[in-house]
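re the bet — no i am not wrong, look at it urself. input seq straight from the record:
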Amino acid sequence: MGSSRDKTTPTRASVKALETALGFSFKDPSLLRLALVHSSYCNEHGLDPSQSYERLEFLGDAVLELAVSTELYLRFPDADEGELTKIRSSLVRRETLAEIARRMDLGSYLFVGKGVETSNGHQQDSVLAAALEALVAAVYIDQGNEFTRQFILKLIDAELAQAELQGGPPENPKSLLQEMVQGQGL
């Protein structure tokens, strides 16, 4: 899904390339363009911070949580609240979202400042996860709830299938260690 583009301005061509990769067109392409602009780009180009994806990221986080929570509630009817919360956490955590963004090659479409670009910062988990959340919000505003729900389910399909096979969330090494330490009374 890569894109060769001039990284100085979010262009129609870059938006079109991502739309092609996503398999649908935005009614309002400016939403997709906004979802691709990192705050470092705004800082370097003297743009208002509202021209970055941060506000979309805020909304996308909530949209993702709702869509994933609903799907888990329906898919795992015998799971209790704690189990559902663990699965949801594993699906919407930064590392998982960044991995999904990498599969989409989302980082190659982002508009970032030179410092972020030089340090390969557009491939960092935090940047990729935030950009994916912004993309989800842009889809939500542009296409509506049901379309976005289906879009999210396609994005997390592999992770959902893994959770189903395991009967729960993939184990997070940090959580495992914490549970072991707590179990030992340390």
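see?? Residues 12-183 form a domain with the Ribonuclease iii, N-terminal Endonuclease Domain; Chain A fold (CATH 1.10.1520.10). told u. also The CA atoms of residues 94 and 146 lie 24 Å apart. so pay up
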